[in-house]
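wait is this the right file?? whatever heres the structure
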């Protein structure tokens, strides 16, 4: 199932928290060889995990992490503005209805449908938080994955060639691709909507909207 939780909600999901950060270390440090920080517990974290981001996590039947992504509003600190602004001609991207998506991670041996399930989650975030776009940095290996699940971005800028190519992408919600993504994920719309509606993230949103009203 899909879980939606901010960083400070993860204390209530200790097994998911533990296995997500461990799988991130295995993917980014061990398999991809990125220069990332891994602590003495084998967890990969960076400064943006301290900004109380929203995580989407695919929970396996065993209760462990199967795949995940991290989201932050672009009005605050983001990786794309802090480290990859040069790919956008030096102009930061900041807008209330645009969030950054980073740390797309799949656990080793994850089912093929997990990537599509995470794209389903993006759709719930678009609707649930009234977003217009998601922005993120991606590398060459992701191009094929995005194409297969029907979620290819608009490229705002890129550098490098071949496997070393990195780009900044902008995603809009594509209603026309919805059925394809749900089909690949093996999730119904009703099921997806229920998972989001009962999540800590949705409850937090509702409390905030009540205070504003």
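ok assuming it is, sequence goes like this
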């Amino acid at each position: 199932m899909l879980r939606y939780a901010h960083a400070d909600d993860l204390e209530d999901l200790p097994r998911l928290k533990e296995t997500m950060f461990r799988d991130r270390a295995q993917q980014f440090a061990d398999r991809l060889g990125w220069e990332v920080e891994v602590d003495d517990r084998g967890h990969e974290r960076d400064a943006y995990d301290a900004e109380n981001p929203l995580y989407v996590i695919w929970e396996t039947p065993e209760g462990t992490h199967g795949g995940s992504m991290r989201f932050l509003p672009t009005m605050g600190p983001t990786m794309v503005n802090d480290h990859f602004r040069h790919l956008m001609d030096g102009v930061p991207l900041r807008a209330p209805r645009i969030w950054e998506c980073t740390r797309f991670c799949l656990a080793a041996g994850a089912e093929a449908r997990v990537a599509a399930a995470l794209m389903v989650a993006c759709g719930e975030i678009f609707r649930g938080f009234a977003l217009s776009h998601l922005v993120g940095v991606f590398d060459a290996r992701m191009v094929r994955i995005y194409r297969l699940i029907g979620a290819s971005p608009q490229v705002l800028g890129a550098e490098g060639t071949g496997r070393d190519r990195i780009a900044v992408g902008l995603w809009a919600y594509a209603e026309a691709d919805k059925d394809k993504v749900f089909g690949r994920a093996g999730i119904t719309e009703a099921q997806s909507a229920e998972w989001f509606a009962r999540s800590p993230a949705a409850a937090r949103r509702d409390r905030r909207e009540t205070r504003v009203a």
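The beta strands are 2-6, 54-59, 65-73, 98-106, 133-139, 154-159, 166-172. so i think its the right one actually
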